[in-house]
Amino acid sequence: MSTQVYDVHEVHEVDSRTTGDLVRNVVGDIQEIMRSEIRLAKVEMKEEAVKAGKTGGVFGGAAIFAFFALAFVLGTCAAALAIAIPVWAALLTMCFLCFVIGGALYSFERTLVKRIHPVPEQTISTLKEDVQWVRRRTTSENISR
After folding, report:
1. Does the global pTM surpass 0.70?
2. Cβ atoms within 10 A of the Cβ of 5, count?
3. DSSP H/E element including 25
4. Is the pLDDT of residue 14 over 60?
């Protein structure tokens, strides 16, 4: 078994930073983290706003289609059906078909709306990580004193 000999006069390197320097570094790090989180939140919110805009456009298109469908399909088909059945039955049939088309478009729109996430989830996740990091860092600095 070998034994190691340690020099009693060995000089240990001491961190020359003052408490003020350490606090400034921590505050600077926290400020940079917060700026990064704000930038990330802006990017996420912009992406979600684009999704919402596209969804709104589809919804507007669905509403316009439903209106024109109601006007033209009812008029044309009701006239054609009026040849075989009474006029009131032909109009009622066309009205029902327009409701079915409108319902299908509404159902499609709901699936698009569910894809929109107004909460910046990635930012919230990284903020939680940042808080844990700061807690660990401040706890480890308190322990090392």
Report:
1. no
2. 5
3. helix 19-68
4. no
